[in-house]
Give the backbone structure.
Amino acid sequence: MSTLARILHLDKTHEVHIAHVAQPYWNPYLSGIGLGLVLLAAFVVMGRGLGASGAFSSLVATGLHAVAPDHTTSNEYFTEYIGDGTQHPLKDWLVFEVLGVFAGGFISGALANRIKPTVEKGPRISRRNRLLLAFLGGGIMGIGAKLARGCTSGQALTGGALLGVGSWAFMLAVFAGAYATAYFVRRQWT
Amino acid sequence: MNAPFYKYGLFQDEVSLVVAFVIGIGFGFFLERGGFGNGRKLAAQFYFTDMTVLKVMFTAIVTAMVGLYYLSVFGVVDLALVYVNPTYLLPQVLGGLILGIGFVIGGYCPGTSCVAVSTGRIDGLVYLLGIVGGIFVFGEAYPLVKGFYFSTPMGQITLPQLFNLPYGVLVFAVVAMALGAFAAAEWGEKKLGSRIVEN
């Protein structure tokens, strides 16, 4: 806040610039309480928690079904997401929730002047290599999330709050896997 | 008051999709507020330079867990009607390990990458394409891994059931553990100093 105040003071004649100063992130405990109340609302209103990776499974299954319908319906896993044809596979709770996540992230980012096209990376890695690792990491994450029946949202956050045994085992494994790998990709981030 | 409302038939499927969108907005909003649209900030958790991931995640878990516990004690929510993911221990542990590896390599998890995309992160978009690829690979390999996928089933088991302890005791234990973790995180950050510049 003091930085912002200083800028406001020094930059009185350049108000245009002030509008582009990105605000700092919230206190993590405050963000956590907000997130927890959203999760609680999902429990109370819907009787279920949050999720993310499931929506992308629906998307992959739908896309694949459009390109290769026979192949998709012969696959047991994708068929689960396609359903029996009475309802469009994208007319799904998680799909709409994730659309909301995109919107909510945009609203928060826009209000805090934090929206700008950029690549997040440390100073010691090229843009191209960072994007390659982003793709690779996403692929590994996709496989892990499907094997675990959910990701950080559906398992760690939701299952954690519901005291699910598998979700807590999952959560410990996530931290273990990430900490064990961090050293090998340190040039990407530090 | 009878909750969960949806399970008591207070509204139908069509309305539930509107609810999903609104809840998603809240989810994305607070993820972005906490800095979870920034892969560098997320990855810093694994170098002990910025413990935001741990703080936000455990605060959220504790908030929702304690809230749900008291709402059930006061008879507002029927806990039995809140869906708990079934446990398949080994696939969940291995899946978690793989996911953790993907997290630190890619910089995001599925939910946070959505927020990264909507705030302009190109790496977030590429990461999301990677997820789509990973899900495709898993789906194609499903016949091969199906046996393992359904191994070590334990049903919809919770920690209170596993340890044969009252629900409230586990709630208290998780709160105590979270407070300990927060204290350690604050101490560690002060000791190592945050090398990550905000934004």
Observations:
- Chain B has a mean pLDDT of 94.
